[in-house]
Amino acid sequence: MSHRPPYRITPTVLTLIEQIGEALGRLSMIADAQDLRLRRINRIRTLRGSLAIEGNTLSEDQISTILDGKPVVAPPREVQEVRNAIKAYDEYPNWNPASETDLLKAHEIMTLGLLDAPGQYRTGGVGIMGPTEIIHVAPPAGRVPELMADLLGWLEITDEHALIKSCVFHYEFEFIHPFADGNGRLGRLWQTLILTRWNPLFADIPVEGMIYVHQNAYYDAIAQSSQDGHSTAFIEFMLKTILEKTKEAGGKTDQDSDQVTDQVRELLTAFGAAANQALSASELMAAVGLSHRPTFRQNYLHPALAAGLIEMTIPDKPNSRNQKYRLTLG
Description:
The chain has 330 residues and is mostly helical. The chain is built from 15 helices and 4 strands.
């Protein structure tokens, strides 16, 4: 049997798991209606949050531009980091969380063009750098293969709740710090992978962005767990973070249920493959199969605008002949 990482299931942990389950239930009521919009918004925020923790300075707008395949004026290394992360988040649903092969492949994708040996365990010493100082010195490189085999073996056989095992894995991965670089990005991605396997809603909840907001507390939780000798403090921090973001994502359920009608859902779906583009009223009418403009405006366009799900490209001139509409970014 694989080594069990040290942690404790506290009353706080159990309460947070229950609260997250309730928040996910509320979120599921509106997730379908906002699917296209949420996926783009949260993908950008996920990428921004996870990379910014590691020092990447690109904004959400710049990441959005790269996501659209357009050039952006920025440091080449930071652009490469974004492109790598985009590819990794494209592919991660196909990976097995307990597979070392998939883990190494993910690291290769995330660090391609950034490291001399992407997708390979480190051969030297490393540590975790907090905001101002080193908060953890990782185990010697020679122990990394054994420690990772134990961690992945435990992940494969444990029957712990996904919320707990995702947090435990995240902490233990950072404790081992198996790669020369990219450990933070990959650890957060792998926690998202574990959570998404449990509940697909986590594909649209940018936990990474919330960690960025609470970056100092994130490092404090890692340091506290290292000092304690078990990951309980980190588990509680991460569950509070997940709960906060899940409640935020589903906090407008009642309002959205009133405003998001079948017609609005159809309008959002009409963007389809053009979700990143702006479409005119005529193009949207054609997409939903309408020819009567007043009906389109009353039942489709105006409710979607009022709910904040779409926006005008020329908001100062709502009646402009060149007016178009696009899914909002927030």
